[in-house]
Each structure stands twice: as structure tokens, then as C-alpha cells.
Design a protein that fits this description.
This protein has three helices and no strands. With 96 residues, it is mainly alpha-helical. The longest helix is centred in the N-terminal third of the chain and has 23 residues.
């Protein structure tokens, strides 16, 4: 009685690392102009969403761990403001 359920620190660390990986993937995706989602990326996103939903089940949707994870996830999906898009080598002004 009176015991609370906690998520292991490793779970939170793993979730954070996965969101960071997703952020990097999305940066490359936006930089290359790829707008479609490959099946592997959708599965990876679903995996992260499931881990976040589990946090919501354990702690509730108003808990700091849950809110931080949701915020980090949404930030990872946003297109960066300072995005440097990849340029085709044919687009560079060459001078001979």
C-alpha cells in the first residue's frame, strides 16, 4: 500500500536517445527535401510514441516526464528554422 510505480532511469534515457536520433533523421530528411515517410521511419516514430504513451499511463499526462517527452518529440519532428538544404552540385556557379 502507498507504493508508487516508477519508470526506470534507463527507460527515460533510452527514450531521450531515441528522440535525439529521430531529430537527426528529420534534419537530414528536411535537408534533402524528402517529404515522404519510409516504413522504417514510421515504425521508429510509432516505437517512440508508444514509449511516450506508456509514460502517460504510468505518470499521467500532466507529469513532468510525460510533458517533456511530448515536447521533445514534437520538436524533433519540426523543420528547423536554420536548415541548410543540400544543393545539387550542378547549381553551384562554376567559373572557368
Amino acid at each position: 500500500m502507498g507504493e508508487t510505480l516508477e519508470v526506470a532511469a534507463e527507460y527515460l534515457y533510452d527514450l531521450k536517445k531515441n528522440i535525439e536520433k529521430l531529430s537527426t533523421i528529420m534534419e537530414v530528411k528536411y535537408a534533402t527535401g524528402t517529404r515522404t515517410y519510409e516504413q522504417w521511419l514510421e515504425k521508429f516514430m510509432q516505437h517512440i510514441e508508444g514509449k511516450i504513451n506508456f509514460l502517460g499511463q504510468v505518470y499521467g499526462n500532466h507529469h513532468e516526464h510525460y510533458r517533456n517527452a511530448v515536447q521533445q518529440y514534437h520538436q524533433a519532428l519540426e523543420e528547423p528554422d536554420d536548415l541548410e538544404t543540400m544543393q545539387n552540385w550542378l547549381d553551384f556557379p562554376y567559373h572557368f
